[in-house]
Amino acid sequence: MPPRDTTLQSRGEILRDAMEIIEAEYATPLELDDVAARIATSRRHLQRVFKEAYGAPFRTVLCEVRMRRAAELLAGPQPLTVRAVARRVGYRQAAQFAKAFQRHYGVVPSLYRQHARRPLERMPSYATTPATSTRAGSIGLRYPTG
C-alpha cells in the first residue's frame, strides 16, 4: 500500500525544513540529532526521510552541500586559499577538506580552482562534474516542491 498524501506532504515539509537548516548552516558543525530536534521530529524519522528522498544519509547530503559551496568558492572571482575555503564550508583542517574534495570531485581543490578560472570550453570534464567512482559521489540534490 503506497503512503498517504498527508504522509508524503509531511515528509516533504520535514525535508524542506532540514534542507533549509543545512543550506543556511553548512559551515557549522551540524548533527542529525540537532536538526531533528529543531524541526520537531525524531532522529530515526529524519534518517528515513533523507534515505527515501536522496538515497543517502544526512551526513552525505551535508557533505554534498559543502562540496558544492566549496566548488563555487574555488571558482569564484575572490582569490581564496584552500584553507580559507575549508573553513568557510565547515572544515577545521584544510587537509581533511582537501581529501574530501578530491574524493568528491576527483581532483584536489587547488587544481580545481586553477581550471575553474579558465573558460569553460577549456576546462577538463573532471573539474566540472563530481567523480562517479567516489564513495560520496553526487547525490543530485533536489528540493521537494509543494
Short description:
This protein is an all-alpha fold and 146 residues long. 58% of the residues lie in helices and 0% in strands.
List keywords for this structure.
single chain; 146 residues; mainly alpha; Arc Repressor Mutant, subunit A; 58% helix
Proportion in β-strands: under 5%
Total beta strand runs: 0
The averaged pLDDT comes out at 83
What is the name of the CATH architecture of the largest domain? Orthogonal Bundle
Helix vs. strand class = mainly alpha
| CATH class bucket of the largest domain | Mainly Alpha
Helix content: 55-70%
Number of helices: 7
Order of secondary-structure elements: HHHHHHH
User: What Rg do the Cα atoms give?
Assistant: 17 Å
Count of domain modules: 2
Distance between the termini: 23 Å
CATH superfamily label of the largest domain: Homeodomain-like
Question: Quaternary state, please?
Answer: single chain
State the low-pLDDT regions, or none.
120-137
CATH topology-level name of the largest domain: Arc Repressor Mutant, subunit A
**Approximate shape:** elongated
Q: In this structure, how is the largest beta sheet organized? A: none
